## 1
Amino acid sequence: MKTHIGRFAIHAHSEWSYDGRFRLRTLARVLASIGYRGVLMSEHDRGFDNDRWAAYQEECARASSATFLVIPGIEYSSPDNLIHVPTWGDLPFLGEGLDTTTMLHHVHAAGGIAVLAHPSRQAAWNSYRPEWSPYLLGVEIWNVKHDGYAPSAEGSDLWREHPSLMPFAALDFHTGRQIFPLALEIRVNARSTRENVQTALREKECRSIAFRSPAETFTRGRRSQTVVELERWRTRAFRHGEKVVNVARIIR
């Protein structure tokens, strides 16, 4: 059967999250305009219940089109709001502020997909438990909202220490500031649907890319030095109120 590769944005928030700014349809239109074929959403668990989760999934379906797929997802937070885990799959809403171990067991039992988010945020990597690894598809080695223009050193180290985890490069999209040339390439055996994209993720038929290269190649060597310097420049520019060049067009 013929396969094709879809380029998806991963880890995005809309106005369904308490800190999101974009409507789902607007978000889909913006991401489609810069070359994505879909987005894996990760709305915060705060304020959701089963009814709102059902309504949200329907809204994701309405925001999708023949050329762009919006996949619903929930980012679960630990009771202390330290550990965050985006999840996808045909799952019920599990609840707010769940114990991470309990949540991961429920997601895994239901055939869902889970990825550890932004391990550098508040040094969350220090609280990682090795027993979580069998229940996680991967870890974000690069999160634009929290890491900026360079991968997370701690996230990259965590990925290397736990080889069963896949490396993910995520936008953590809340506003236009998180537009950056990171994507998840997903290989599917038919046209992209929620079901076959989720199956491809479970089977690890995917890879994270940055600037059209594997994202992990930016964690070491010359490429790492380049993006680290770019991130230093970006933070200096914001600190001094200078105008930062928009690099979103690089993704084309």
Note: The first strand starts at residue 4 and ends at 12.
## 2
Amino acid sequence: MAEPSLVSAPATIGSPAPDSRIVAAGRGTAWWMEAWRLFTPNAGTWLLIALVCCGIVLAAGALGMVPLIGQLVGLAAEILWPVLVGGLMLGCRAIDRGNPLLVAHLFAGFRQRTLALVLAGAIYTGVLVLISIAIGGMMIAIFGVSILSVVTGATDPSQMGIAYGSAVVAVLLVFLFFLLLLLPLIMAIWFAPALIMLGGVAPVEAMKASFIACARNMVPFLVYGAIGIVLAIVASIPFGLGWLVLGPVMIASLYASYCDIFEDRDGA
């Protein structure tokens, strides 16, 4: 019996980004329901893909303990993850068309749209590094002296409680500022792999379109995120094993939201 072939991406890259539409708040719930529909017919394959991803993460973590090599591996992982997501978008498309999901879909992005997906990952990683440097510089410039005095014990004992309190508040404020800077970046990369792989949109245009789409649909994404937090807590309870299901379902929900917002159809 012949092996099922992968769904191919459009032949050309550089297509204009499709217009995003505003959807109702309840669609944030529907994306999870649609994701479950995409998961159940090929649950075994999804679980196998999740195990392969876990193996990749564990291998990267082991290499991460090696000086210099670890940093390079971490950087490469950040750059290449949109390639894996792009391949899985083709997998979701295959399920939509009544074709089976294959483990090979996980690596389909290394055969199609590779340069564009890598470029999107490089832009994302570059901006993330700049944000991290900016936050690190802020910590050193504004709070460095206070934190250093607490760590070294140089603070007057009578002022130790105040110093610790100030350090904690400083760290929390910087963390919140980091999240504020990170949110637009997440919005820009959320739909980018799907737009590149399924829509043939160039990387920069895909990231712009993704940001605009997320900004226009903040309310359904808040509903989606609230449900996601609950599911994440539940998935983490049995030693994190629930993530073997929740991970694939999240990927499928990304595809469902892409179809709903960019293709004007209910997740298919």
Note: The chain has one domain: 27-42+67-262.
## 3
Amino acid sequence: MSTSSEPPRHSRKQAVIVSAAVLAILASAVWIYWFEFGSQKQNIDLHHAVGQVMAEETAHVVGQTGKLVLITLDHRTAPELKLQTDAFEKRLKALGGITIKELIVLDAKDNPKYRPGAGLSAKRFLKIARKHSSVDAIVSFVGAPELTDQELTELKTVPKFIAEAHSPEKLVHLLEKKILLSAIVPRFEFPAPGPRKPETSRQWFDRYFQILSPETALVKGDDAP
């Protein structure tokens, strides 16, 4: 009787998650170094690029028209988020009829967990989702929560969810459940596409970030070697 040497799907998926976690840590270290020590002009270009791609992903998920809730931090706490959200709003306006119904500004209260791509708790997300169940999307510049199946069953309806996040491996559950439909994360797949010295906004984005979706998450989980 012949036996297959192919590892089970669960093992392949776990290997992908572990690899993504290690690479995400390295990518986050590069990301932190870049924003701490990179030139101001380059930082501005990159933050603008993140905001623009967030808008494009929102339009891709929502369509030409719709209303959304935007979640961010107080710009005095995270000034880089002002660059991102300003670019997001400008690009969103240029793309069509999607409007921001409500802007939710979280108060970090000097808590280091709140930063671009991180800080949104499950409790806060569930509260926002319940209150704004009629909007077309929730867009978070402060990460995505880790939700249990029980917490998900508490929601009757969930608006489409787009987020900037730092930890790809923590997004797998939300992506598989198709709660999170698009996530912008620090790049963990290399080599990065495009030139080593970016010139366009998209080249800046692709150099340091990438996009995850339910489709790419399933591909990585099912087809990883």
Note: The first strand starts at residue 65 and ends at 73.
